[in-house]
Amino acid sequence: MRSAESELEGARDAVTRDVWKAYTDLRVALRKQDSAARLLAAADSAFAASLEAYQQGLGTYPDVVNAQRNLTAARGIDVDTRASIYTGSAALALS
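User: That's the sequence. What structure does it adopt?
Assistant: Structure tokens below.
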């Protein structure tokens, strides 16, 4: 009887741990989403400004390429963050 109670308590603790981890992972992903959106907006703005400067003869092509590289990286971070949110939501639902 004691071993069954101990096993049940262990299983209950494991489930609680899994739910709590899934919940905190989702909250972290949601916080990262805000940062990723700001990063993406800043990178997009920087790319647009760099391209405009280049078109007006005030910037260099390497500046445009660098801004484009940063924009691509920011888009990747945004996509990864969204994937983390979907994964975290699914993990929480399954927990």
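The two ends are 27 Å apart (CA to CA).
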